Amino acid sequence: MDKYNVCKDDLIKMLFCDKCGYDNEYLIKLHKHKTEIFQKLIKTKHFKSLKIKPAKDTKNRLGSMMAQYLQHLEAEVLITVINKYSQQIEVLMFDGFQISIGVDVDELLKDLKQITGFDWAQKDNTFEPDGWDEIDEDETDYLKWVEDFEKNHFIVNNPFEYYKETEQGLVSYNKNHFKDIYEPQLEHINTWLKDEKRRTYDSFTLLPYQKGCVDPCPENLYNRWKEYDSKIVDLPEDYLPLDLMDLLSQSLCWDNDENERVRQSAWVMNYLAFHIQYPEIKSQVGLVFESPPGCGKDLLMALIQKMLGAHTVVITENPNDLFIGMRTGDNFNKDIEGKKMLVLNEAIGGDIVELMDKIKAHITSQTVHINRKNRETYEIFDFSSFISMTNSRFPVEHHDRRFVKVKGRNWTTESQEVKNEFFKPKWDILNNQDEIDRIFTYLTNIDLKDWQPRKHRLVTKALTDSKMMNHKNSSMFLKDLYEDEWAELDRYRNEDNDRFLTVVDFRKLYLNWLKKYKNQQAVEQTKMNNVYLELQDFGITLARIRPKPDMKLVRVVRFGNLEHVIKNLEAIGIIES
Fold this sequence. Notes:
Structural class: alpha/beta
Strand content: 15-25%
Number of domains: 4
CATH superfamily of the largest domain: P-loop containing nucleotide triphosphate hydrolases
Number of strands: 18
CATH topology of the largest domain: Rossmann fold
CATH architecture of the largest domain: 3-Layer(aba) Sandwich
Radius of gyration: 33 Å
Oligomer: single chain
Number of helices: 20
């Protein structure tokens, strides 16, 4: 290094900077050689399997990925050692460890070479922190207590509260309750509360990251994101999650056209893969599974929850658990914090208009207000997607691009034997963690390229039919008249674009159509004055005209400009332009 006038900082910067900004000939050559090596490494099968992505907003994309990769390799080596010497290792370091005194170092070095394939060196620990010998016994006792206590306790400044980490999630306390809980340790608690170095965060945040990647959260914030439960494992070369694919294509994404079933199933597989590979991106598309009972909706959601973890997938039958501001709710929604999927089971019911407004707002919103009982409300990033499982019709407006709907197969006509043969192997997966890990890994490895749920939104017949069902009866009636080329209407003075029907004939035609399209109950509930008001939106009016110059005035429903009527039907999406 002295020979070529290079210092250690120069080498570190050169290692992870993508652009070479040096005038040192040696560093220029070294940078070029390093870049060639890095580019070869990122093409290896092992690197690709880790799905490493550059850090956000970095200018050194290659260096960023290699830094993560080298850290991963280093961790792989250390994990091999830790698994064998877990009882003897006292302190872990980034490139080694401190071993207990009783271990034969010479034998240890030989064994390390054998199990890792690397040469290891012993270095004496000569580091003594300033003032170490000045720490008294009480302070040593406190430091040991803090080390253990802060493994699962901390403070958040905004909103100010005390927290404990448990397997079930975070438990919060106010100051008095916190002191009451830990009264036997009150002396240490009081010291800790005054300690400027205590474990403290400015606020909560939610920054999801892919399984196996480095947590991107700044040190001053507490990340509510917890990794998915499943592990990434080695897959057989020809592995396919056949049971999951079968459940989708043969039941949940049903269509009489096999190619259409495959198309819909592939989209749902990509949808699941997107949530695993890009948890930091909100899908902005709600997925609706609409089917009769016994189609496998609960099975699919149970599998997803088992794969990703109950801490990140919430399944509920009560929309009040998810959305604050519902008239029938208690306005507390703490259960959605940190979640990736919000699953509403049998979601249709109650005030559907109010519920749909809440759902649509949530699908595209980037933040959510967390409202907890007797606690301050705070805002946090939101990356969750909405999924509905329903046996009823899920209403979707004609212009709404926030939903994808698939319709399930009707199994009611099948024998119990046939249903058992199809569904039992799939239910058995829930008790097979190895298979769940393989499915998770398969979804992790799907090459999505630039695929995104909203950009590549799936349009299905179920979605189109649902949008049609949301149109008013009068609009659907006009659609049928249009498709019949207005044959039921009379021309006004031989004008094709100007038609009419007497009020009596129109009423008879409309109510007969309604009985056929809906039922007798719909006919009985219909008020023709309301129908005439709805028709005004299309330029259709009540009028008095003389159909012929020599005829008396007749009260009619007049379609004075059919081209205008057609444009209005196109505008609401009921017919194609």
